[in-house]
Recover the amino acids of this structure.
């Protein structure tokens, strides 16, 4: 079993619209604030079961306004829409980085299926 990836750098870019995360194995990912916000691991977004998951629209221009450590295993991101309850573990950040194109494509499909879009607030 491999060890959990360990971040070597976490840096806000582009006025908080991008979060760069580099890992100790050389992998590095530039994650958009929109992706991070819409895929927040918070109960507000993920619910307590897959059926409770909320599709979050209207976040094209969201920005990250704060990054705070949570123990030695995660960070909490604060967004300018006042969302700040998601705890992003190193593994989850890595998962988002590796799967970003497919995850974002699935998000766009969810928006379309629910009549939502990236510019107008939706379910939450």
């Amino acid at each position: 079993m491999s060890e959990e990836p360990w971040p070597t750098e976490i840096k806000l870019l582009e006025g908080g619209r991008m979060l760069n995360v580099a890992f100790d194995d050389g992998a590095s990912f530039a994650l958009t604030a929109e992706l991070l916000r819409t895929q927040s691991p918070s109960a507000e977004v993920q619910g307590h079961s897959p059926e409770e998951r909320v599709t979050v629209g209207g976040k094209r221009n969201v920005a990250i306004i704060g990054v705070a450590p949570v123990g030695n295993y995660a960070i909490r991101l604060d967004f300018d829409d006042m969302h700040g309850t998601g705890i992003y573990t190193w593994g989850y950040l890595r998962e988002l980085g590796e799967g970003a194109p497919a995850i974002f494509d699935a998000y766009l499909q969810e928006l379309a299926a629910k009549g939502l879009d990236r510019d107008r607030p939706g379910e939450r």
